[in-house]
Specification:
The complex is a heterodimer of chains A (395) and B (315). Chain A has 395 residues and is an alpha/beta fold. Chain A folds into 2 domains: 151 residues, NAD(P)-binding Rossmann-like Domain (Rossmann fold, 3-Layer(aba) Sandwich); 161 residues, Dihydrodipicolinate Reductase, domain 2. In chain A, strands 8-9-10-7-11-12-13-14 form an 8-stranded mixed beta sheet. In chain A, helix 1 links the parallel strand 1 and strand 2. Chain B has one domain: NADP-dependent oxidoreductase domain (TIM Barrel). Chain B is of the alpha/beta class and 315 residues long. In chain B, helix 6 runs antiparallel to helix 7, helix 7 packs across helix 9 and helix 12 packs parallel to helix 13. Chain B contains 13 helices and 10 strands. Classes of the chains: A alpha/beta (395), B alpha/beta (315). Chains A and B meet through helix 1, helix 2 and helix 8 of A and helix 5 and helix 8 of B.
Chain lengths: 395, 315
């Protein structure tokens, strides 16, 4: 039996709570939220122990693991408080807004030996797992270019009163939507060299972005990101990737994988040269308990299993999420953070903020290179100052 | 084929037409979903399929509370001579409407948005008061009433709670919500409550705990085990031994199982009352109808008397 607590009773928190409670090896020892409404209803009708103070819950409920599903700008201190007590952490995505803080938390978690996971559920979608397997097998050879997309009908009019409509809290299409295809890029291609241009666009939202476009440079490959959460043609969120390789092409969304193999590379078992289609219905085993998609169940089942067996290595850890956080930060800088002002440096490259070296110690230096050459120092410093100010202010 | 069944309950037709195909829901392919959305963009294309179903003796439409279903209701209401035999089984809520609203407005904001505000001042006041008092039953029943409004004057003998909500409540352990829903649907709307789920064995336990007797439950039942959480064996065991009225959906697993194989397998199951299926053409409907006629085994002792249920009046 693993003792688990949960903080944050919004959409994701309620979904996680509903998926955790029926798991046979889980004991829910507490839920915490600052707003009493949903909390009171839960206490009255389900008998789950409730708390309004997070530190108090960690102390009194004594969980072995905690699920953090609060708005993104609140993640950092909550993760730290848990990790410092040696509590395993599942945190919603993105991990944090400031990659420097993310790096500190990642190092802290590694030092304390706790199990970490971040809610990038696409890593548990059958079709996206199949893409990873095909890439590992070298089915399409070296990847040359990628189109990473996400569309959905979230903000279709000028409104919005929740934290998701404010960038400073972690709201907006970059943090909420683009994070998903960006994390798949991290999973498939690793860390990029940098961002070659990006634009965040506000369509209806006054305090954040509704669409993101970016060009991302990888060694030998280029990814183009296009994301729009004000797309009324969509019924719900749709994340899709197309990868072109030297020996074939892969398209994947949640439903299916369409693969074209040239026949010049290895042909995986069950595949043939030319077109192949695999369906999510075949690639996805039924979970023990289902609420809203097998991947949400699967990621929590995996976390509970990892905690029980104290398995620190994982599919979506703080370390992998930090890479995605850094890519998100670089996209903001390429767009001209902190002011959101347009940048004209379309041929420049914004590298990911360096966070790991002791030499930078708490700074997020972003170096800009013009046409592959180091940019003048003044430009670099302006960029660093801008990104720092923007990131600090958001945090 | 409809009428009062055992213990005076409304007996469902053997085949019910679902509505996923009209709204671009396809679990296998976004391309196929979009093609269907294009095809059914105009209401007359949807009505043509409903007419084709009625030509095959399928009069029951199991549908979400999507705004476009409201348009279908308008057509049916306007022509009682043509559509007098038509029965609606509404499934609520249409979850994506709420999910997207939660991202925008938060949970409380969403409740405020969907609670009645116009038309009935009494209901609006009732909603505000109940929201403030954390009166879950009051708020939930007002939402049910609001979702049912589009069916005014039409026959809705069963009202279903949609699977995302059923399974969320099931996971949270909020079993009282099932009783609240069942009581409200029976007492205020004179309809039979139904529950859609992806976790049939677990839900039957919960409904038993909540005291909902012989419940009408719709779940995925297919040869592949697609979205049958708890496992195929537990489902078969439930069909064999547990007291509930079973409706099978996703019998083709979104097209992953050939039609004949799928129907033959599901028709051989014990104690199945109905199958809900999606179809986009008269040919598909005829084909499914023919297969079900061929393979269906009528359970011993089940009565399927002819009969009609009265149209619902406004709440």
């Amino acid at each position: 039996m693993t003792r688990i607590a949960l903080v944050g009773l919004g959409k994701m928190g309620l979904s996680h709570l509903s998926l955790l409670r029926p798991l046979p090896d889980v004991e829910l020892v507490g839920v915490c939220d600052s707003a009493g409404y949903v909390l009171d209803v839960l206490e009255k009708y389900t008998g789950i122990p409730t708390f309004t103070d997070y530190a108090d819950m960690l102390r009194r409920a004594a969980p072995e693991a905690v699920v953090i599903a609060t708005p993104t700008h609140l993640h950092g201190p909550m993760v730290r408080a848990a990790v410092e007590r040696g509590i395993h952490v599942f945190c919603e995505k993105p991990l944090v807004l400031d990659p420097v803080e993310g790096a500190e938390l990642t190092r802290l978690a590694e030092a304390r030996g706790v199990v970490t996971q971040v809610g990038y559920h696409n890593r548990y979608v059958g079709t996206f797992c199949e893409v990873r397997r095909l890439l590992d097998l070298g089915a399409i050879g070296r990847v040359r270019s990628v189109l990473a997309e996400a569309y959905g009908p979230v903000v279709l009019r000028p409104a919005g009163r929740s934290w998701r409509s404010r960038r400073g809290s972690g709201g907006g299409s970059l943090y909420d939507y683009a994070a998903h295809p960006l994390d798949l890029l991290t999973w498939y291609l690793g860390e990029p060299l940098g961002v070659r241009g990006a634009r965040l666009t506000s369509i209806h939202s006054s305090e954040t972005d509704d669409a993101v476009a970016a060009t991302i440079a990888y060694p030998g490959a280029t990814a183009v990101l296009n994301v729009d959460w004000s797309d009324g043609s969509q019924r719900k969120m749709s994340t899709r990737l197309t990868l072109w390789g030297e020996k074939g092409r892969i398209f994947a969304d949640r439903q299916e994988v369409q693969v074209h193999l040239s026949g010049n590379g290895p042909v995986p078992e069950g595949y043939e040269p030319g077109w192949n289609v695999r369906f999510g219905t075949d690639l996805t085993p039924a979970p023990a308990f289902y609420v809203r998609g097998e991947e949400y169940s699967a990621q929590l089942e995996d976390f509970v299993r990892r905690v029980a067996s104290h398995e620190v290595a994982g599919r979506s850890t703080f370390a992998t999420a930090l890479s995605t956080d850094r890519l998100i930060a670089a996209i903001r800088v390429a767009d001209g953070a902190p002011d959101g002002a347009e940048t004209t440096t379309t041929s420049s490259q914004v590298s990911l903020p360096a966070v790991g070296s002791p030499a930078v110690n708490g700074r997020t230096p972003s170096s800009r290179h013009r046409n592959g050459q180091p940019a003048p120092l003044a430009v670099m410093l302006r960029s660093v100052a801008g990104s720092l100010a923007g990131l600090r202010r958001s945090a | 084929m409809s009428g009062s069944g055992p213990a005076g309950q409304y007996a469902l037709d053997r085949l019910l037409l679902g509505d996923n195909q009209f709204f671009g829901i396809n679990h296998m392919s976004e391309e196929k979903a979009r093609a269907q959305q294009l095809r059914f963009q105009r209401l007359d294309a949807v009505m043509a399929v409903l007419d084709a179903a009625r030509d095959e003796g399928i009069h029951t439409f199991m549908c979400t509370t999507h705004d476009r279903v409201g348009e279908i209701c308008d057509v049916v209401r306007a022509d009682p001579a043509a559509y007098g035999d038509m029965v609606f089984l509404p499934c609520m809520p249409y979850a994506h409407k709420y999910a997207n609203a939660v991202t925008e407005d938060g949970i409380l904001g969403t409740l405020r948005r969907f609670l009645p505000d116009g038309g009935s001042l009494g209901a609006a006041l009732r909603g505000t008061r109940q929201l403030a008092a954390k009166d879950v039953e009051g708020v939930a029943t007002l939402l049910v009433d609001a979702e049912l409004r589009m069916f005014e004057g039409l026959r809705t003998p069963v009202v279903w709670m949609q699977n995302v909500v059923v399974d969320l409540l099931l996971g949270l352990g909020f079993y009282d919500a099932f009783t609240m829903f069942a009581d409200h649907v029976r007492l205020r709307h004179g309809a039979e409550p139904g529950f859609i789920t992806m976790n049939l064995p677990a839900l039957l336990d919960a409904l038993e705990t909540a005291g909902v007797e012989n419940p009408l439950v719709c779940s995925n039942i297919n040869k592949l085990g697609f979205r049958m959480s708890g496992g195929v064996d537990a489902y078969l065991d439930a069909l064999e031994r547990r007291p509930f009225r079973a409706v099978a959906m996703s019998v083709f697993a979104s097209g992953a199982i050939p039609a004949e194989e799928a129907i033959e397998w599901v028709c051989a199951l014990p104690n199945l009352e109905s199958i809900v299926f999606g179809a986009s053409s008269a040919r598909n409907i005829q084909h499914t109808r023919r297969l079900v006629d061929e393979f269906w085994v009528e359970p011993a002792g089940r009565r399927r008397p002819e009969g009609r249920v009265p149209a619902r009046s406004s709440p």
